[in-house]
């Protein structure tokens, strides 16, 4: 039995009756998927996320990849803040207490319509380098949000 | 090559320049002053995940990031 026959047999067994069409469809789908990934990574939001990940510490990056948020320490008070990626919920920054519970929501962003990753990176830099200025621009809102480490 | 990264509505714009080229350096300094004059914050990386704000143009910085002013949400 030749190799081509074997492949045909397997393909037929799994319902691929027209091998030529199957091969063409596979190639087209592969190219289409690559194009889709390329576009997603190079759109505004994709570039913003890539830039943010690039500027995070290894620990922050690992936490973000795993959980969709990362923690920063305020440069003046030593307070821990959690910056979330979620797009709908407001605020996306929370002040945490000593045992990691949310104490307060911190609402601040950047002037203009920017990508989510860009906003999160600016929030990190602002809290880590100029906490008081960031807090003075922010609105603080009580929260009942439950956080887990 | 050094890079100035400006966050804007298109995502982020990268301006690459040769720091050994005097004219390119002048152009980068002009861009720095123009952006900070418009309220942008400039920051440079000082280590993995470590960032420092800068208030004047640093010709030795490999990467400078600019983001618009903060506003309350």
Silhouette of chain B: globular
Rg of chain B over CA atoms, rounded to whole Å, is 12 Å
Count of helical stretches of chain A: 6
- The total beta strand count of chain B reads 6
The percent range for strand residues of chain A is 15-25%
With strands numbered from the N-terminus, the spatial order across the biggest sheet of chain B is: 2-1-5-3-4
> Residue-averaged pLDDT of chain B, rounded?
93
Q: Give the % helix of chain B.
A: 10-25%
Write down the secondary-structure element order of chain A.
HHHHEEEEHHE
Description:
The complex is a heterodimer of chains A (149) and B (73). With 149 residues, chain A is α+β, with helices and mostly antiparallel strands. Chain A has six helices and five strands, in the order ααααββββααβ. Chain A is 52% helix and 18% strand. Chain A has a five-stranded antiparallel β-sheet. In chain A, β3 (93-96) and β4 form a beta hairpin. In chain A, α3 runs parallel beside α5 and α5 (116-129) packs across α6 (131-137). The longest helix of chain A has 24 residues, at 19-42. The model of chain A has no long low-confidence stretch (mean pLDDT 83). Chain B has a five-stranded mixed β-sheet with strand order 2-1-5-3-4, covered by helices on one side. In chain B, β3 and β4 form a beta hairpin. The model of chain B has no long low-confidence stretch (mean pLDDT 93). The interface between A and B is medium-sized, with 38 and 25 residues.
Topology:
The complex is a heterodimer of chains A (149) and B (73).
Chain A: H1 3-13, H2 19-42, H3 44-55, H4 58-67, E1 69-73, E2 80-84, E3 93-96, E4 102-110, H5 116-129, H6 131-137, E5 139-142
Antiparallel strand pairs in A: 1-2, 2-3, 3-4, 4-5
Chain B: E1 2-8, E2 11-17, H1 22-37, E3 41-47, E4 50-54, E5 63-67, E6 70-72
Parallel strand pairs in B: 1-5
Antiparallel strand pairs in B: 1-2, 3-4, 3-5
């Amino acid at each position: 039995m030749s190799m081509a026959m074997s492949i045909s047999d397997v393909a037929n067994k799994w319902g691929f009756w027209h091998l030529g069409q199957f091969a063409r469809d596979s190639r087209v789908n592969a190219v289409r998927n690559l194009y889709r990934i390329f576009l997603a990574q190079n759109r505004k939001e994709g570039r913003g996320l890539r830039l943010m990940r690039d500027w995070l510490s290894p620990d922050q990056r690992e936490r973000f990849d795993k959980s969709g948020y990362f923690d920063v320490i305020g440069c003046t008070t030593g307070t821990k803040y959690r910056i979330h990626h979620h797009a709908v919920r407001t605020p996306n920054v929370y002040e945490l207490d000593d045992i990691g519970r949310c104490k307060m929501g911190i609402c601040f962003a950047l002037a203009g319509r920017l990508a989510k990753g860009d906003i999160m990176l600016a929030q990190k830099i602002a809290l880590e380098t100029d906490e008081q200025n960031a807090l003075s621009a922010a609105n603080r809102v009580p929260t009942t949000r439950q956080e887990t480490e | 090559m050094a890079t100035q990264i400006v966050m804007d509505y298109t995502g982020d714009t990268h301006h690459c320049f040769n720091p050994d080229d005097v004219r390119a350096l002048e152009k980068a300094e002009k861009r720095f002053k123009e952006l900070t004059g418009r309220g942008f914050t400039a920051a440079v990386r000082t280590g993995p995940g470590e960032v420092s704000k800068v208030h004047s143009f640093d010709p030795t910085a490999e990467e400078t990031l600019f983001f618009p002013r903060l506003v309350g949400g």
